[in-house]
Design a protein that fits this description.
Layout lengths: L20 E2 H16 L7 E3 L4 E4 L13 H14 L2 H4 L1 H35 L8 H45 L17 H28 L1 H21 L3 E4 L15 E4 L4 H6 L7 E2 L5 E2 L2 H10 L17 H30 L2 H6 L12 H31 L8 H5 L1 E2 L2 E2 H14 L5 H29 L13 H18 L1 H21 L10 H16 L14 E4 L7 H10 L5 E8 L8 H16 L4 E7 L2 H11 L9 E5 L45 H13 L3 E6 L6 H6 L5 E5 L14 H15 L7 E7 L4 H14 L5 E5 L9 H4 L1 H15 L3 E7 L10 H15 L5 E5 L10
Parallel strand pairs: 10-11, 10-13, 11-12, 13-14, 15-16, 15-18, 16-17, 18-19
Antiparallel strand pairs: 1-3, 2-3, 4-5, 6-7, 8-9, 14-19
Length: 908
Amino acid sequence: MNSESSPSIGVSFAGNIGEKIPLMNRRRQMFDYFTRMFGNSSTVSEETSKDGYVEFGNIGEATSGRTLGPFAGVFAPVCLSMFSAMLFLRVGFVVGNAGLIETLFQFAIAYTIIVFTVMSVCAISTNGAVEGGGAYFMISRTLGPELGGSIGTLFFLANIVSSALCLTGCVEGLIDNFGESGYLMPKDSYILNDGHWWRFTYTSSLNFLNLLICLIGATLFAKTTVIIFAIVVICLLSSVISFFLKSPLQIEVPAANTFVNQTNATVLLNYTGFSLTTFTENLGPKFGNDYTSNNIAVTFSTVFGVLFCGVTGILAGANMSGNLKNPSYSIPRGTLGGVLFTFISYIALSILVAATCSRDLLQENYVFLMPINIWPPFTSIGILTATFSASLSCLIGSSRVLEALAKDRIYGRLLQFVNYGVWHSNPIAAVLFSWLLVQLILFIGSLNLIAQLNSILFLLAYVALNLTCLGLDLTSAPNFRPSFKYFSAWTCSFGLMGSVIMMFVINPFYASTSFGLCLLLILLLHFFSPCEASEWGSISQALIFHQVRKYLLLLDPRKNHIKFWRPQMLLMVANPRSSCPTITFINDLKKSGLFVLGHVKVDKVETNLDYTDKSISSWLTLVDHVKVKAFVELTVANSVREGLHHLVRLSGMGAMKPNTVVLGFYDNKVPLDYFTRLDSVYKTSLFQGLTTNEEKFPLRLPNEEKHLSTSEFVSMICDIFLMHKNICICRHFDLYNKTDIVKNIKYKYIDVWPVNFFGPSMNDAYDTSSLFMLQLSCIIKMIAVYKKHILRVHLLNTIDIQSQRVQLKQLLSTLRIKASIHEVTEWSQIDLTTLDSDINTYISRVNKLIKNQCAETAICFVYLPMPKELRGSDLQNVSYLNSLTDLTNNLPPTVLVHGVSSVTSTTL
């Protein structure tokens, strides 16, 4: 067979990459070259010079749609997301309950987790081209569709909850400004009514406003991020300056605190200004009650849950990856800068609050920053701007993650509506769905309760990011070489463990539920997702390779012990179309051992060097279709016998090499096509081509000459014996139907015939081949399908039958094999003297004897004798095969077995 001509796989260039290349003859060639090297065309900037040459700029320069740098694209979004509702609304709550020392301790824990996670994000984002989808893209392209899809789904939900959290904080600020006793309203006048359903109405209205902005001007919002950030910073500076300029004063309890305002008496709280007494009193913890959550008791977990929701915005920059000029440059610098800035802001604000505000003020008035500001509207503007912008950012982010999930077909048709609902690159359907989920979360009402759920979901995302980076580092994959070097397996591990521990500290129920939901999604996606990860890569494969290699090296063949022997099968498959039942049976017979499907293509080796590469995909598809756990080994040789030598010697690795070779029987039966038979459980169109030539595994035609001769087949049996491998030959497996064996009550037995019919002796039942047969029959009896069947060992009637029975029963007991012993009295009627004088008559009588015992037999194991001459003539080989054929004619599915080494043990 002539090999197909293969296309050129490389392009050579005369000069260096930086040189100018004539436009007409090199432009497309060079551009395609860089496209193949660096992923896609969006990563390469192509410019045409005036003199008709192409010049290539730096890899990663701005392309269409990528306009944002580190500050506007990462730093500002990260800071805004981390400030959100925490900065102006909950710093006092944290310090007032936990005290300054514990607050600083909690910030240290939170930022330690955050910094380690940011290191993982930076490492992943600088290891290749980061496309749109942000954190979901990074996780899914590393962990694969199951883990990536499940974590991506929970990350989508985290953004939904975060949007609801920020809206709740925004309405809280509105009520405290424009509600009853609002700080920006004249006394005894207000614009906004207060109450649970009033607040739900306001948050729903703001959520609807978010929806309109997302549908109309989401791009415009991204461009105004820097302006919004500047406003928030100005408001923050005004609050910091106010601590130094504001004199001591008394502040009323806000109207929202109905638990303190139960009486008509006005309750005043003290702002002391800088006071050593106040600072000392605020050092230790003194947990009170949360007046926004039905006055429930505050604990360390509650406080940390609220605090952590203020530092969960580290992925805001990564989520903008599709709009960044150079994500690998911008994400590390912008994210680390944002983390540092927010940390300094929170620590400074906490210290100033602890030094100037009484404990009662911090616990009973969460918006105390407004009355103590030199111009209260500054704080109001900061609250409304920070919270509303963060809520809008989370809604946009969640819709983009949902769009990415839909494009990747993670959930198949379930999210198909998202792909259909896109207008001018705006995922309308994803935005509407995200908006609806935010609306449902708003029913919770309390910012502090939503904050705990928000923190749990983001911590789970951080667990995934740290796990991703840790896995990449541990696998030592050569292609994992990020330009960001300030990370290690230790930083990933600390970030991972810290995230898991704090999840359960915040809320064990939420943490357990989120992990359970993640596990459920992983299982569902594993079994039902149509998404293929072949182009993504999955870290699981890298980890498996890493561990398997390590343990294969530890698996020393010199330390093998008979107690732990297991069958490691090499099944020689002529054509899978006619071998499906045999493949299924040997898969059951391997008993969690090695199973290799071997195939020899008889052709000229020199013209088929790429045969394995071209054919392996079809064979792996076959393994999936037949649902067996097997490896595939293919070879090209001048003969089947020569190919068998290749496979026996080279299949497997280290100590995991086949110890048993299985062959099909050599006969003249017309092979059946189990892929096209209407009554076949293996029926499929997977291997059908548009034309006959394109069909996979074409069957040999009835009049077509075989590649294997009778003499060569027998020589292969002898070769396997000389290579010290156990031998099994399967015949009549065209009759084998596993489903029928289960349903048909006719089948009752698994038969073992431990006697060498070509030269019977008293010790046949105890030699290596018979013990190997007993071991195989015991293994097949362990399979669920055969557990109801009786393992029956046939004892031929000899001179001392009683002694033979006792001895065989003792052997079975010693080997812990539960079997019945069946005496075959008809054996005495066979004249053994005819074995040499008239072997054909003798074999026919033996065949009839076996057949008479097999009316209710599902599987029959028969002793396989070796030819008298291992290097016999063609005539001797043909005679030997004819004897095997006559011996097994018209029997049920039969396995001829010959063992060469001990496989059973009687020791502990």
